[in-house]
Write a sequence for this structure.
């Protein structure tokens, strides 16, 4: 069974969830152990906080550390993702990042709690709440799991909600390289066209001035678009950040009338060629776990989940 020294580590729990025809029914849960007492254990999972009474625990064990990325790898990827999606209003709380972009997207309007906030955790979260209150915005925190599990547990205690889990996925860039050009071609530009911006506005619910900063204020960025007979069919955005090693893929979008033509794959492969030419070795993207078609597409291209995060929202 588990011991107190297992707190803070990833564990898998097999719990008894019912009885059928005299036999127990089991369910497995995987997450960060944040509390262990004589009466219950508490996990932070990709779906949120889970408290399991000890009477329901059939078996529990620590997951070997080799099965998950190191904390340093999670931090490096989160910082590369932040550089690829830069909020115009920024501040620091120790190592933590505070970000605002007129409410445009959760990523650009949330605190990123990686590293040391230079104060006790409750005081750090109080400061986060004050910072967003001064801006007139709801406080939000992105919690990479399992790295930020203690932050998530404190937010649970404060009654914060959570948006759906997001998968942060990666793949070696060599896996994505295009083997031949396609027709119609994918055009890569250093600045987004009006048509490109219109697609982004439709997907993200408007396009304030801060959004244009998020999209363009990256040293190495390209905007992909596919036209046929003067009509825009697909778009995408690529950035190279993380000491020029990581290609970030965002806003991969195919217009509804152009689905099932392989355009998303061609946009991704064209951006991969561009990133590789700059020296990038790996690609990453973020996709909601519930977006089954997108998850299936990325799986077919070789992407695997590096870690997950939850966007936590103040009550």
């Amino acid at each position: 069974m588990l011991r107190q020294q297992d707190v803070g580590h990833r564990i898998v729990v097999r719990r008894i969830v019912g009885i059928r025809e005299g036999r127990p029914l089991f369910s497995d849960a995987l997450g960060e152990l944040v509390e262990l007492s004589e009466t219950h254990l508490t996990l932070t999972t990709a779906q949120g906080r889970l408290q399991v009474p000890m009477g329901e625990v059939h078996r529990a064990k620590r997951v070997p550390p080799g099965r998950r990325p190191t904390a340093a790898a999670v931090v490096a990827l989160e910082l590369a993702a932040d550089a690829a999606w830069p909020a115009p209003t920024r501040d620091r709380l120790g190592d933590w990042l505070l970000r605002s972009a007129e409410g445009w997207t959760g990523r650009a309007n949330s605190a990123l709690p990686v590293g040391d906030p230079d104060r006790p955790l409750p005081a750090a979260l109080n400061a986060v709440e004050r910072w967003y209150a001064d801006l007139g915005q709801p406080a939000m925190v992105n919690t990479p799991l399992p790295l930020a599990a203690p932050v998530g547990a404190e937010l649970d205690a404060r009654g914060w909600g959570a948006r759906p889990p997001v998968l942060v996925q990666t793949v070696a860039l060599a896996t994505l390289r295009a083997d031949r050009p396609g027709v119609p071609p994918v055009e890569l530009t250093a600045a987004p066209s009006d048509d490109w911006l219109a697609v982004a506005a439709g997907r993200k619910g408007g396009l304030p001035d801060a959004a244009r900063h998020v999209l363009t204020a990256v040293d190495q960025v390209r905007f992909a678009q596919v036209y046929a007979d003067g009509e825009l069919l697909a778009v995408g955005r690529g950035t190279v950040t993380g000491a020029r090693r990581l290609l970030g893929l965002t806003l991969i979008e195919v217009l509804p009338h152009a689905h099932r033509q392989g355009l998303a794959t061609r946009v991704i492969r064209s951006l991969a060629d561009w990133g590789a030419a700059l020296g990038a070795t790996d690609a990453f993207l973020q996709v909601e776990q519930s977006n089954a078609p997108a998850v299936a597409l990325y799986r077919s291209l070789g992407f695997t989940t590096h870690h997950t995060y939850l966007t936590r929202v103040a009550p």
